[in-house]
Amino acid sequence: MEADAPTAGEAMVDWDGARYAEVSGLQRMVAEESISGLALIGNERLLDVGCGDGFITMLLAERLPEGSVVGVDASHRMIDRALARVPFDMLRVQFHVDDVLALPFDHDFDIAVSFNALHWVHDQGEALRQIARSLVDGGRAVLQMVCATDRPSIEDVAMQVATDPQWAGSFEAFDAPYEHVEPARFGELATAAGFTVDDLTVKNLSWTFDSVEDFHAWFTVGSPDWTNRLPDSETDRFVAEVIERYQLTVGEPALFRFSQLRASLTRRAGH
């Protein structure tokens, strides 16, 4: 018998919000590009799923002077960092620790967004159902995440390294903490969850870090599912091996290649 899949809150470790803020230039670039094309009137009620340290959420709040924004994330330390960004008198912005698989909302939002968070959720069908339930009829969702393509992902490389004899003892019964969904499958899941798929695109992108050391720092912050299983004395060596092996697949030092699925969805009335 297979074990029940963990919820997002169980599967996702508590990311370090302060360190994430220091190295998240890549994530911010991708999200800023996405929100620049997001059509907003200015009075919408917006939900940011997997809001992280709140940087992008606050940018969205600036575009909603007569609206409101709620950011949710499974990481307590991320939410602590996000709350520190909110002026004490800005009541229209809230941040909460919440699991995307058990959102406490019911037809409360006009639009939902998520930027590079949902690929850390195994049950993406349930996540989509929860997001749909959070929206009013006709509400919109703009969701962006890493997806499956023919490009090898750094997470796949990390899983390969974890099976090496020198590391395998630390990763017994360790399942991949991510879900890189096939784009067509994501469209099917969205439709089943109560959405109309207005647009679904995949882009292959790349980012060159200033140095291999910067790449190392970025992956260290983004890989606690792996590194939390290791003694502190072994973390740097494991990350260095992942980076080195990944570079063999892309052919250049400090180069990171990734694929982005972007889905624009509308909640069907009465679903």
From TrEMBL:
<protein>
    <submittedName>
        <fullName>SAM-dependent methyltransferase</fullName>
    </submittedName>
</protein>
<feature type="domain" description="Methyltransferase">
    <location>
        <begin position="47"/>
        <end position="139"/>
    </location>
</feature>
<dbReference type="Pfam" id="PF13649">
    <property type="entry name" value="Methyltransf_25"/>
</dbReference>
<keyword id="KW-0808">Transferase</keyword>
<dbReference type="InterPro" id="IPR041698">
    <property type="entry name" value="Methyltransf_25"/>
</dbReference>
<dbReference type="InterPro" id="IPR029063">
    <property type="entry name" value="SAM-dependent_MTases_sf"/>
</dbReference>
<dbReference type="GO" id="GO:0008168">
    <property type="term" value="F:methyltransferase activity"/>
</dbReference>
<keyword id="KW-0489">Methyltransferase</keyword>
<dbReference type="GO" id="GO:0032259">
    <property type="term" value="P:methylation"/>
</dbReference>
